[in-house]
Every structure is written in C-alpha cells, then in structure tokens.
Amino acid sequence: MGMHHGGRMGPQMGGMQLIRQADTDENGQFSKAEVTAAVDKLFARMDRNEDGVISIDDMPDRPF
Q1: Which residues lie below 8 Å from residue 30, measured CB to CB, with a gap of 6+?
Q2: pLDDT digit string (tens) for 20-55?
Q3: Cβ–Cβ under 8 Å, residues 44 and 53
Q4: Do the beta carbons of residue 31 and residue 18 sit within 8 Å?
Q5: In contact, 10 and 2? CB cutoff 8 Å
Q6: Which Pfam families match (predicted)?
C-alpha cells in the first residue's frame, strides 16, 4: 500500500479512501445518492458551529 509520512496519508491514499467511503454499495460507481450523502457528511463535519455555512469560524486553529 502507500507510504505514510508523519502519520498522515499522502494525497493519493487520502483520495482513494474518500472514493471507497463514498462508494457505499462497492460497485465501482458513484450514484447521485452516494455523492449527495458523501457531500452532506463532509459539510456536516466542516460546519463545526452548525450554523448552516462554512466560514473561517469553522476552521481549526492549526493548519490542516
């Protein structure tokens, strides 16, 4: 598999993980429902103060 650097996955490994998570029925394709669910989940994680928008207030105090 891919190499880890500093405990983080490289961009390719991170992207592959996102693809695997979004393809919930594991058929190698993304349905509109799968993409919508993945984006909704990501939005909810990023909207830390749950105000319905993603702004600077939702950003962590440290770099990603």
Answers
A1: 22, 23
A2: 888 999 998 889 999 999 999 999 999 999 999 999
A3: no
A4: no
A5: yes
A6: EF-hand_5
- The structure tokens 């390719």 sit at 12
- What confidence tens digit (pLDDT) does each residue in 15-26 have? 778 778 889 999
Phi, psi of 23 (to 5 degrees): -85, 75
User: For tokens 């991170």, what's the residue?
Assistant: 14
Listed residue (36, 37, 19) closest to 28, CA to CA: 19
Say if residues 51 and 62 touch (Cβ distance below 8 Å): no
Q: Which amino acid is at 14?
A: G
Cα 18–chain centre separation: 6
20: CB partners within 8 A, 6+ apart = none
